[in-house]
């Protein structure tokens, strides 16, 4: 049984309406006049889902929640809420909690009672000053969103015990460009997705290369970011678009991650690495178009190469895309397709592209499984773009990644360690 009170006045909150023992869902989205949550509901034993989204006058849910069946609690955009409730020990079933966009200043230490919590959304809680140490007891937590919470950086150490955490969002948390930041997240052994977009750091202050399962890294819209961090071989998607200060080719980060991918991807069913990176702007001209590491290069959309005789582990492609017009245009996302010898040869969907006013590099690295079965020595690769697309491929580079490349990578790593 469910009750929907969307946009209702406080007069609709009659006690007898909620006394049904089988009430499982209560949706009170947009009840702007609701100031206080009825105390008799804070102990409801059958309620599974409680939605109070945009109840902008709601200040409190009472001193303590003891709702033993509750699995989802949505308090998003309850902008008057400064203090969240304490949680009773019976609330072990709560798996999703959203306090996003509230005015809370801290989480209660009783958050440790939410041992079944899997998703915690705290984005845009700009008054949130810290995270309690008790958050370390949330061993089931897989998603944590702290975007637009700049004051919680001092508490990132408390995340070290969250060994099940797979997605961490820290967009717009680093609001100044000081280089003294350094955060060790090595213990997040399950982390696969890390969002660091819209930050003002000059260098990424997190030891990215020590995250053993990281697959997706977002560094979009980081205007002061100068260099890419060392990247783990587990990485499969990198976004660094509209980060116009970025020197993409500093310290050969891209070539290293391509070689690392080639060395490890044969043990991975998802044998494809995709990277979108901004091209650094130098005065009125652009920086290096395609790095020399991509030894086969041509201007325009397309490049022809011959498969080498030595053992080839992967194929690395680099496309340089530029806006066709200098004026601002609506930013849209488009699906991409790469063709080989006139045919589409990558079956899975590639990452979507966002049109921008800056030159971008799209780098693709594929395992040998994508081309060894074609029984062909000569290849021509092209990037397919819609005719109405407002960006074009200016130049193209290719490199076959072979065993000597991997050996050189390991040798250089030994020399620098």
Question: Could you characterize the architecture of this molecule?
Answer:
The strands form 5 sheets. A 16-stranded mixed beta sheet has the order 1-2-3-5-7-8-9-10-11-12-13-14-24-19-26-17. It is 6% helix and 25% strand. It has helices at 253-264, 403-416, and strands at residues 2-4, 25-27, 49-51, 64-65, 72-74, 86-87, 96-98, 119-121, 143-145, 167-169, 193-195, 216-218, 237-240, 272-278, 281-282, 285-286, 296-299, 303-306, 312-323, 333-334, 337-340, 343-344, 353-354, 360-367, 378-384, 391-402. α1 crosses α2 (403-416). It has 2 helices and 26 strands. The protein folds into 2 domains: 1-165, Alpha-Beta Horseshoe (Leucine-rich repeat, LRR (right-handed beta-alpha superhelix)), CATH 3.80.10.10; 229-417, no CATH class. The protein is mainly beta and 417 residues long. The N and C termini lie far apart (62 Å). The radius of gyration is 25 Å and the shape is elongated. Residues 286-402 form the C-JID domain. It comes from Arachis hypogaea. InterPro entries: C-JID (IPR045344), LRR-SigEffector_domain (IPR050715), LRR_dom_sf (IPR032675), RPS4B/Roq1-like_LRR (IPR058546).
């Amino acid at each position: 049984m469910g009750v929907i009170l969307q946009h209702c006045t406080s007069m609709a909150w009659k006690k007898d309406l909620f006394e049904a023992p089988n009430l499982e869902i209560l949706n009170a989205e947009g009840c702007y006049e609701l100031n206080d949550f009825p105390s008799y509901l804070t102990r409801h034993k059958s309620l599974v889902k409680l939605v109070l989204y945009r109840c902008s006058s709601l200040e409190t849910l009472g001193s303590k929640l003891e709702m033993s069946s509750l699995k989802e609690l949505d308090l998003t955009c309850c902008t008057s809420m400064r203090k969240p409730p304490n949680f009773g020990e019976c609330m072990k079933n709560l798996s999703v909690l959203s306090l996003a966009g509230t005015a809370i200043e801290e989480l209660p230490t009783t958050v440790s009672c939410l041992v079944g919590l899997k998703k915690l959304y705290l984005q845009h809680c700009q008054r949130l000053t810290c995270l309690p140490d008790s958050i370390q007891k949330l061993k089931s937590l897989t998603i944590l969103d702290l975007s637009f919470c700049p004051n919680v950086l001092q508490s990132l150490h408390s995340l070290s015990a969250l060994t099940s955490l797979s997605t961490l969002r820290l967009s717009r948390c680093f609001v100044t460009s000081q280089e003294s930041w350094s955060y060790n997240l090595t213990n997040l052994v399950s982390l696969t997705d890390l969002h660091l977009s819209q930050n003002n750091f000059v260098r990424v202050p997190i030891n990215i290369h020590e995250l053993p399962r990281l697959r997706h890294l977002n560094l979009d819209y980081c205007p002061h970011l100068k260099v890419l961090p060392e990247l783990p071989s587990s990485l499969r998607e990198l976004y660094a678009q509209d980060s116009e200060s970025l020197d993409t080719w500093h310290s050969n980060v891209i070539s290293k991650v391509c070689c690392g991918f080639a060395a490890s991807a044969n043990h991975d069913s998802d044998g494809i690495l995709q990277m979108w990176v901004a091209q650094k702007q130098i005065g009125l001209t652009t920086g290096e178009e395609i790095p020399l590491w991509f030894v086969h290069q041509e201007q325009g959309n397309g490049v022809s190469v011959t498969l080498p005789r030595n053992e080839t582990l992967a194929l690395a492609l680099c496309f340089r895309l530029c806006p066709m017009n200098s004026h601002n245009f609506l930013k849209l996302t488009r699906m991409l397709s790469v063709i080989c010898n006139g045919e589409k040869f990558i079956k899975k969907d590639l990452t979507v592209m966002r049109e921008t006013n800056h030159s971008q590099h799209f780098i693709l690295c594929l395992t040998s499984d994508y081309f060894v079965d074609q029984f062909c020595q000569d290849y021509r690769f092209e990037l397919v773009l819609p005719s109405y697309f407002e960006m074009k491929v200016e130049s193209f580079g290719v490199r076959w990644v072979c065993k000597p490349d991997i050996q050189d990578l390991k040798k250089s790593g030994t020399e620098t360690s």
